[in-house]
Amino acid sequence: MPSFVSYESFENGIALVTLNRPEAANALSIALLNELSKLLDDLAFDKSVRAVIITGAGDKAFCAGADLKERAGMDETEVQKTVAYIRETINKIEQLPHPVIAALNGSAFGGGLELALACDIRIAADTAQFGLTETSLGIIPGAGGTQRLPRLIGIGKAKELIFTAKRITAKEAEQIGLIEYAVPRTQLMEKALEMAGQIAANAPIAVRQAKLAVNRGFDVDLATGLRLEQMAYEVTIPTKDRLEGLRAFKEKRKPIYKGE
């Protein structure tokens, strides 16, 4: 039985997740979603993981979104259930406690871009293209695109991209803040692994609390956000890692963080 999601872990705490349907542009079939959802459930409780990279197999596509060939045979109820399943699975990515980097090896459209939007950081091959193209198919982004895209790039630009179903280049995506970096395809994984390694070298409890503070504080008023930050900071105070950081600074050496 083929595996539609592959997983690899590295000694430094980096987890690499690969969408593995290159013959179908890594589209989100039910079978792929089943594997991805289960893997995300496992990752959420894996304390050995410090950073996650999600990429796609092949050179052309990161993820084409929903599997439209599969959807063509569904009735309305089945479509509703499938869209809900895609939405729930993508939400699990955003809810992972670890930082998640999307290494966009190729183009991402529709649900594929929505998946990337749920990641914390996006690095793309400079040959990739992006778009929320749903309105050209008689639907709208249904897995977070109408909510996450304007929060990332601003409401006006997000409306333009969604209303027109326009496809943009990696260079354009970098300019408007949709992705953080556009790099040559041959350098993509090197860049993603380098950044993940920098994250993994830091205190994991602190990194997780920083992610929580930023994510939860983004949509509340400043006073509430500052309170959330204070609460997240206080979680780090009794940790052994905090003391290790102080000792390493005093001894002028690199800290060795254990997530304790």
TrEMBL record:
Query: Keyword set for this entry?
Result: Lyase
Listed NCBIfam families: PRK07657.1
Q: Which SUPFAM superfamilies match?
A: ClpP/crotonase
GO terms in the biological process aspect are: fatty acid beta-oxidation
- PANTHER family given for it? ENOYL-COA HYDRATASE, MITOCHONDRIAL (PTHR11941:SF54), ENOYL-COA HYDRATASE-RELATED (PTHR11941)
Q: Which family does it belong to?
A: Belongs to the enoyl-CoA hydratase/isomerase family.
GO MF terms listed in the record are:
hydro-lyase activity
Q: Does the keyword Repressor apply?
A: no
Q: Which InterPro entries match?
A: ClpP/crotonase-like_dom_sf, Enoyl-CoA_hyd/isom_CS, Enoyl-CoA_hydra/iso, Enoyl-CoA_hydra_C
| Source species of the chain | Parageobacillus thermantarcticus
Protein name, as recorded? Short chain enoyl-CoA hydratase
